[in-house]
User: Fold these one by one.
Assistant:
Number 1:
Amino acid sequence: MKLSILDQSPISSNQTAQDALIESMKLAQAGESLGYTRYWIAEHHDLPGLACSAPEVMLSYIGAHTKKIRIGSGAVLLPHYKPYKVAEVYNMLATLFPNRIDIGIGRAPGGSAEVTNALSDNFLQQVYKMPNLVEELIHFFDHDFPKDHKYATVAAAPIPDTTPMPWILGTSKKSALLAAENGLSYAFGQFMSENDGAAIIEQYLNAFQPRKQGEVPEVLLTVTVICAETSEEAEEIALSNLIWALQKEKGEGQYIPSIQEAKEYELDGKEIEKLAKMKQNMIIGNPKECKNKLIELQAKYKVDEIMIVTITDSPRDRIESYKLIAAEVLS
């Protein structure tokens, strides 16, 4: 089993945004030393508690502080942007960090309606055009527009020796088929979905159409995992993330609460039910428990790679969680 990291660059109770971004770099370094395959950082806009609005900037910083781990976006929210500019940016990264760059592509707004309007015009219309945007982006990467196309002579310079590896990120049949029809790799976000991921991944595999001879479908599954030496400790650490999720629903949650703040948060009956439901979509436990559940997911979803997202109040607890999982699964 291959393991990778998805980082949302959370801002903890005692951190600034700068602190959080530096901790993201340290997480990538730790992931590299522990044997994780890739490190992706997410794009969010004006969402309290999350620091990264520009993955491309962070990837330059992280690439300069790592040597071999694959790095990428999870995801570039393509309806906000022109494909040509995205291709330029990721070709630039692939030129600086050869054979290391992934580009995850998503269609979500990444923030509120007001933020969406501030970022781009006609977002919904661009979402409807998502298949065309993806096709255009891939043509820019491969530099293979038909000769009569308006962009046939346009290059997304600099042209790297190795093209960034494109992925479609999603949680639905629509995203799976978009990936399959374009011959792209697919990342299913199980951590943020209640859909039948196994069925969606199967649809992707059955519909896959290779862009080039010899290409095969590639899938990864993204899950939330919090691991500690004991199950009790893991449950305690996970409480910060769970309470933060409830706070966000209320328009609160400016940062990830400390464990103590999370313990002191007063829950009503509905919130207790919500917490229980959220935990069903997470892996929380000691190293052996986490390994067993990861193996179960691997078998259920028929994937070779699992990408782990871990949000804790303490950066130390977060890196320790990844260390314990690596020691149990990758060693």
Note: Residues 235 and 284 are 6 Å apart (CA to CA).
Number 2:
Amino acid sequence: MEHLERDVVVVGAGVTGLTAATRLSAAGKSVVVLEARERIGGRLWTDVVDGQMREIGGQWVSPDQTALLETLDELGLATYARYRDGESLYITRDGELRRFTGDIFPAGERTESEITRLIEILDGLTAEIDPAAPWAHPRAQELDQVSFRTWLEQQTDDEEARENIALFVAEAMLTKPAHTFSLLQALLMAASAGCFSNLVDADFILDKRVVGGLQQVPLRLADRLGADSVRLGTPVRRIEWDEFGATVMGAGVRVRARHVIVAVPPNLYDRIQYVPALPRLRQQLQQHQSLGLVIKVHATYETPFWRAAGLSGTAFSPYQLVHEAYDNTNHGESRGTLVGFVAAEQADASFRLSAEERKGRILESLAAYFGPEARRPVTYYESDWAAEEWTQGAYAASFALGGLTRYGELQLQPVGPIRFGSSDLAGLGYQHVDGGIRMGRRLADDVIAAAREEESA
């Protein structure tokens, strides 16, 4: 067993933990990062599978993500625009394939009008929400006690309009059925991106990608710390803490530190034993948060054949197994790649199938949008983060009904020398890399401020 002493131990080598660690190191603090996986990056993972580069985890950069954009610039990482020329596709409730441009799906005059009206209502409500403290809204409890699906049913009798609005938050973002989370949780999701309209606008929210992959952000941050400061394959099993600091115990290492930052998703907090145990409300908080479920599908073809047909590669339908798809062709490649998503209850059902049957049904769904050529990719891969031991879901944790007002304010409160944080707890940039960076900066600044207070006491 190796024994170390540091000012700060960071648990988790994702973008939050590494942002915090590099900021602390720059401020003169001694830091060690303990990571359970045998790789750096957390929910960012760029890898080559069957000879094809894949963004297995997070990948997109949007204009509002200023913390991420600043970091990319600082690290010298270039971006490129997602291909979006041409028309998008929508499959109606009756199975009709329609081409369109713009943000509103071509679902018929009345339904389109209802979709527009609902977006306007949601934009108005979102403008009242502080993403850093949604529980502070005067009607927070009311908004947190009604499911998003129930609220939509109260607003319109147009089922197709309801299904399309739900798609933007339930399947596309929280990856949970719309009856399982509250209107307030949906408004937080929208507020974190600036407004609900931004969630609807694929050209905004999925604007750019990083040349060479987004995992380069945590990799380059880790390089700045140095190999001795990041320990891979070192899951933390126990944290003994008191008012003077903590002893953090992982595989083969024991570290005494004044401060600890636990920078992992909330569903993994209880993989660590805390001595003494965490306060009761903190334990309750963790039981009311969970990750959703999604299959991210990567299908690569010899050419991006849809472009010749005047299509952007963007497709949507709440009535298809693949509820959304995009042109995900890598920078500089002649091959074409489609990325598609199967979420929530559709993902539940898909995982009950054999791998071959699941692949067949997913490709059939892509073919419903793009034609028979979509059935014949040269490489095919499914990102399955629910099977990852140190993630167990996608894309981020959200609260069950009523949980956001009941426990949200507790999330960032320290427990003695221990602080918790990740993109799951962010306001702006919630569940995105941008939010992870913001959280890392905040956690580091909180530790630095606390250390100054201790020194002056």
Note: The domain at 2-42+215-278+415-456 is CATH 3.50.50.60 (FAD/NAD(P)-binding domain).
Number 3:
Amino acid sequence: MNKVEVLAAWSNYQKWWSTARDQDILRFQAISWPTVTTVTVAEDLTVNRIASFVLSPHHSQDKSPKDRIKEQLLRWHPDRFDGRYLPKVPAEERDAVRQAVGHVVKALNELISRDRDSPFA
């Protein structure tokens, strides 16, 4: 991924999060998932794709990797996401969104545990 792609994706991601609560309907395809690549199914949300986006050196350089991951864990926490955003998702897409959010959280938890296991943590 080049710098321009990452910066554009990060900008879109931040913009989506700043307006998501104001949306009446949130569709799976319209949710800004934490990757540079397009997400069509939950399985697209791999640890590597999420890590290369969240931990990219092209944005948020003022935050440590651990702080970046924690920020995203708070954002995607199932209780928070389910309470604020899931009611806006059409019923026929809720299971897919719930599953995708689970993939995001699992990947972020894996990244935070890798950070804890690092001798430099």
Note: The helical segments are 3-19, 47-54, 65-76, 78-84, 91-117.
Number 4:
Amino acid sequence: MAFSSNNKTMNWVCLHLLLLLIFSANAVHCGTLVKSLPGFDGELPFNLYTGYTTVKGSEMFYYFVESEGDPKVDPLLLWYSGGPGCSAFNGLIYENGPLDFNLTDYEGGIPKTYHYPYSWTRTASILFVDAPVGTGFSYATDASEYATSDTKTAEQVYGFLTAWLNEHPQYSKLQLFVGADSYAGVSGTIVVKHIIDGNDAGASPRLNLKGYLLGCPRTDATINENSKYIYAHRMGLISDDLYHSALESCNASFYGVTTDQPECYEDLQLIARQIKDINKNNILEPKCTWASPINDEEPARRSMQENEYPEDYLRSPLQNPEFCHTFSYSLSYVWANSDEVRAALNIRNGTVFDWKRCNKSLDYTYDVASVLEYHQNLSTKGLQVLIFNGDHDLIIPNTGTEAWIKKLGLTIVNDWRPWLVDGQIAGYTIKYSENGYRLTYATLKGAGHSPQEYKRREGYKMFDRFIHYYPI
């Protein structure tokens, strides 16, 4: 009997230890490891994990790519896309991540992907999240959570980050950077403020925030919208006479003009006709025609989501679809809506029936017109900041980005100069500093919206230098 009792005790101890090992193993894993993907030859040469994190009635989907350098010491970057409503898939495939579509050999079906050599994951671990809920594969378990806004998005992203780091504490000690682009420049800036406030309040885990980086960020409605006219004039898209007429009739303020200002309104209508056939994402590239073209009156915020209708793509008059930048976007619908891809990514069945690269049907309230005060507040916190812009972007022109940075009143420590990649000018940069807060602004020459999508190699070099505190 004693022997039998001891055996039972030992069996219980062994079972208990086994369960602890299982739970411990789950704790250090970052979702489910994706070893291969349809369309990719062989096993993935990097660690990709996918999963969901629960945040107040919502299941936030993420892609986590561990650093291809040294994941135990390399920084952690949280990244999400703008729109609002554009999936973090944009970062994974088109901007910062280790995958890219093979466009040259596409013959239909699931598009092939390959390991992109200039991924930001060469030097940092990146946590891509589909935010806000209703974006990409993120979904709500409480239908009321689908109604969102600038402030709610920021709260949700902050909640996601803290919950994810609580689930994966081995990453909580790493240097943390927050990154976002386009319209996410609004909520992304507020996320940084939430992190600082949470740390000050003793929230757990304490986040090891070192800085943030924003690409072509929406920041201030008036500045961003006015800058489009300034930029269009500088680039020779509208005449001197028309521009100066508009300056006078509109009293140098073009945002929010109504028919109550007839002369100004007429000038702006003339300008709109002059640039309506320009590709605003990159003024040097062709504007591909869709069966359902963008409405000229569509709100400026929504213009940050490219109108794309992949089923209509072949109706474009261009003979070579690869010449259209948006051709690659159309492949994302084929890829992400494939049952094989969804199974590989461990997408929960019945949660998102029709994946969209940019969900334009979000129930979204634009409740923050400017985050300039947030940036002003953050400039007292000793953070490392990178703001970057393509210089051929008419969605968020560099003229507006440079204008709001100047309003922060920071001290210039390294004045305007070119920055180089392989001996060639990749763009221009200027660095500011104030009481330990260091802000670097950089342009990517020839890039559109978002800039690292057009200049991935240069974008990687810029990020690699910034993240390791080297001059750009």
Note: The longest helix spans residues 2-28.
